[in-house]
Amino acid sequence: MVIVLKPHTAREARDQFIKELECYNGVSAHITEGSMVTIIGLVGDTSKVDQDFILAHDIVERVTRVQEPYKMANRKFHPKDTVIALKNGLTIGGDQLVVMAGPCSVESKDQIIEVAQKVKASGANILRGGAFKPRTSPYSFQGLRAEGIELLLEAKAATGLPIVSEVMSVAQIPFFKDVDIIQVGARNMQNFELLKELGHLDKPILLKRGLSSTIEEWLMSAEYIMSGGNEQVILCERGIRTYETFTRNTLDLSAVPVLKHLTHLPVVVDPSHATGITWLVEPLAKAAIAAGADGLMIEVHNDPARALSDGAQSVKPEMFDGIMTSLKRYADMEGKHF
């Protein structure tokens, strides 16, 4: 349920009204304040909340029942786009276009620092790298784990780039204390116990779409994180499983404008995982920007032929540099900047 208060409502009257609302069992109020209007979102079991009782208050302008099961992620609850600020001043959402670039897996100190320096020189503003790797085969490289996090932090110290890396379980969360953005991979999108724990953190969470998940299921996973108190959620479209076999997955570009309509959360696109083919990364990155994405996640490796994971979809630094040069024109057309 969304309650819009009349302009210039006094804070004391608003606070008293919220106390009355929270007398309903299982209901909590979340406030969004604009320059003129205050919006109160009621989260929980609002079926017993009397709409006429609410409208009887002089400070209430209108009331809307939200039909969708996700409340906090809903644009009706929070009409303005959420802009997430990192500690270095970089923002995700709004007019700034972020590019997260780096290898699928952290393999060595020399590798990650070299890639970090090169992607930064090309204009990337966040370093991505996997330390804990979920792999389909138990015999594949599983990542350097805690050592990989330490190497990412060394690359961050050498370049100043914030880092994003994937967590796979609740037990791994302590390793991510100094990681700027924690990624939840497609396989863990509905790991609800993990999502609940991440909801207690004061740290941005990059939530990738599950392989066969609907948009509503994806937003409900975001709701798990947000309902725990952490509203810093970034959605990442990384392709879904279809009957097409030419590409690794099928990039659902329609998800970008759909999400922009349904939710206030930032949306980024991963054309590398979506296609699995290096020459498709650039055209789909352009298309993602045109569709309204707030950022991109691109895999970059200094020696893809010898990469320990996902070499076939990783671009070389010199190719990434060309992609970034090309993308700047598209960003300008959409009113965004790197």
Strand arrangement within the widest β-sheet reads 7-8-9-10-11-12-13-14
Q: Quaternary arrangement of the chains shown?
A: single chain
Beta-strand percent range: 15-25%
Detail the poorly predicted runs.
none
Overall geometric form: elongated
Mean of pLDDT = 94
Alpha-carbon Rg, integer? 21 Å
What is the makeup of the main sheet? 8 strands, parallel, barrel
- Count the DSSP helices: 10
Topology pattern, helix = H, strand = E: EHEEHEEEEHEHEEHEHEHEHHEH
What is the terminal separation in angstroms?
37 Å
Count of β-strands: 14
Helix percentage range: 25-40%
**Main structural class:** alpha/beta
Task: Describe the 3D structure.
The protein is an alpha/beta fold and 338 residues long. Helices cover 32% and strands 18% of the residues. It is built from ten helices and 14 strands. The chain has an eight-stranded parallel beta barrel, surrounded by five helices. It has a four-stranded antiparallel beta sheet with strand order 2-3-1-4. The chain has a two-stranded antiparallel ribbon with strand order 5-6. Strand 2 (27-33) and strand 3 form a beta hairpin. Helix 3 (109-122) crosses helix 4 (146-159) and helix 5 packs across helix 6 (215-227). The radius of gyration is 21 Å and the shape is elongated. The protein starts with a strand and ends in a 5-residue tail after the last helix.
